[in-house]
Amino acid sequence: MPVLVGKKAPSFSAKAVQGATIIDEFSLDQYLGEKYVILFFYPKDFTFVCPTELHRFQEELHEFESRNVAVVGCSTDSEFSHWAWLQTPKSKGGIEGVNYPLVADVNKTIADAYDVLAGEYEVDENGNLSVKGELVAYRGLFLIDKEGIVRHQVVNDMPLGRSIREALRVVDALQHFEEHGEVCPMDWSRGDKAMKPDHEGVSSYLAN
Q1: Which residue ranges does the chain devote to CATH 3.40.30.10?
Q2: Which residues are named in the active-site annotation (predicted)?
Q3: How big is the chain by its Cα radius of gyration, in Å?
Q4: Phi/psi class of residue 162: alpha, beta or left (left: φ > 0; alpha: ψ in -120 to 50)?
Q5: What distances in angstroms separate CA 175 from CA 39, 144, 146, one per listed residue?
Q6: What tens digit of pLDDT does each residue of 23-42 get?
Q7: What is the CATH architecture assignment of 14-161?
């Protein structure tokens, strides 16, 4: 699996849904120079683990927004599936109330570019497509900085839900480094002591 950290986030333009609005051409380029982005992939609309994640991102959306982070979801479902799920109440398995963008990766090209596409496919010399398994996205999450560079990525298998707290912690660590030039040790959280990136700073940190 390619590591995208340190590289430009793959660009795309696709349909998306935000609330009850279908967006014809959605791109992360709109955030360049302005916002950080949490782009997360999930396998399918109208499933079991996925709505728990989408609702949690909504519940913590104010925390991301206070850090100048845009949250964007993506799956290989169509924009019509996204729209229908967004109009379905939570009590009936829907995600009504989620109001960040959900990208429709119907051609699987976005998940493929971020290397989170499950299943295998190939095209023979006659142009015939053969598929092994189901072409849906794993639970990939990417933190992209304001310059469009991927600074963090994590990919979970489909049964394994993610941690919103960890996503926020990594955002805090990146922003602390950018503001103070200090690196963040294991399990660092906002407000904890960080480390100066030199031998003197490391020695001082370890002594405390």
Answers
A1: 14-161
A2: 50 (cysteine sulfenic acid (-soh) intermediate)
A3: 19
A4: beta
A5: 17, 12, 11
A6: 999 999 999 999 999 999 99
A7: 3-Layer(aba) Sandwich (3.40)
CA–CA distance from 117 to each of 14, 51, 111, 123 (Å)? 17, 19, 5, 16
- Catalytic positions: 50
Q: Which pLDDT belongs to residue 129?
A: 65
pTM of the model: 0.90
Residue 81 backbone phi and psi in degrees, to 5: -65, -45
Residue 135 CA to residue 124 CA, distance in Å, equals 18
Partners of 21 in the β-ladder = 18
Alpha carbon of residue 174 to chain centroid: 15
Of the candidates 79, 86, 71, the one whose C-alpha atom is nearest the C-alpha of residue 14 is 79
